[in-house]
Amino acid sequence: MEKKETFGKYILEKRKAVGLSQKALASQLFVSESAVSKWERGLSYPDITLVTSLCEILHISEHELLTASDDMHQREIEEQSRGYLRVIRVYSWITYLCYAAALISVFIWGLATGNGLAAFFVVLASLLLVLFGHLFAGTLNNGNTKGAILSGVLFTAITWGIFVLFRYTRLSVLLCVFITAEVCGILTLLGNSIMEAALEGVSFQLPTIRLAVWESDYVNQNLGLLIMICAGVLTVITLVRDIQKVLQAKEKSV
Prior knowledge:
Distance between the termini: 101 Å
Strand content: under 5%
Largest sheet: none
Shape: elongated
Number of strands: 0
Oligomer: single chain
Order of helices and strands: HHHHHHHHHH
């Protein structure tokens, strides 16, 4: 009887902690309000099929529910994990902002001084090297040699493709820059899905995108989508402008 009372008091405490009434808790579990009342008064236990749902609603683990006590050690570990993820998230954002600041600064410097975009290309290639370095290290550390080789080949191909785009095509500098940004956006968005499809033989699936959620699982997808959209719009605008300039030049020559 004492164990039932302790169990009931624990449920009562956790229900109040999450701000739910007996009626609200009962409706979420699809049971009667009197059933919840009996649990809290120590007259009965919840059905075993309700344990998982009850734990999710009360934000406790199944171990805590069964022992009717808080697992402080586990909660401390979870809090440390959340703190670590927050640090990683902040570090990632600072890193992305530093990358963007470096690219923008070198781009503006090249245009303002008339030195061209050679330095911009070097910085861009370096940042791509860092991006693929992370991918390469991740696949290699997981023992996936094929993934590491594919990452290296993909990096080499894209780097040389960007070099050819800047060096040997007659496209305007701005158009080349926006096309490069579009490629980076697509790579950020679809890189993991492409790797999984190529290495594991699974069908290609578009990544899940949640712009309202910027947790570690969604940062790359969200950021890649935003870069892809912005770069795509700027690419189209610049392409239209360049075509208009070419047509105007032809009209003047005639």
